[in-house]
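User:
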Amino acid sequence: MKCAVHTDVDATGFCRNCGKALCAQCAREVRGALYCEECLARMVVGPSPAVPGVSTGPNPGVACALGFIPGLGAVYNGEYVKALIHVVIFGGFIALMNSDSISSGMQAMVIVFFIAFYCYMPIEAYRTAKARQLGQPVPGIFGEAESQRPVGAYVLIALGILFLLDTLGVLNFIWVGRLWPLILIGVGALLIWKRTQVQS
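Assistant: Predicted structure:
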């Protein structure tokens, strides 16, 4: 077999990454493995910048449009666990809004959070697709790069504990309906704390 670059020279090996046939002049050995120059440069430098008109990842516009359907925007971006979490949260909001066991104050809070979550899904799908297209880290809920903390799991556990306490009669949803602005205060305090941590 001949070299993919020098077609008149016999190949001495193959690129471990792309499988291209390489002669002794083209082969680059790294820790016993052969690589072509392009693959080695890509691994050292990282992904090449996006070229206008050339798609290098999911389309942000398509991701945003699909994000209006619960879970579908996340599936398009290849985030299947996040898609499942979106569907479960969306279904939970629907079940709560159709429930007769919650107070009017609690129902108003659920509707507000439902609208916020419905608007969040397409925006989050767009931001994720845009970051992947540019080869950047996927942004998290508060705008920073996604960390190892499973935020979605924490949300599901908190909601599960809340509903379990109500089912056992330990927590009365009337109080939750009256005190839900504390959640907004907590989120605002968390954002301020994160901003001061970044600046310091």
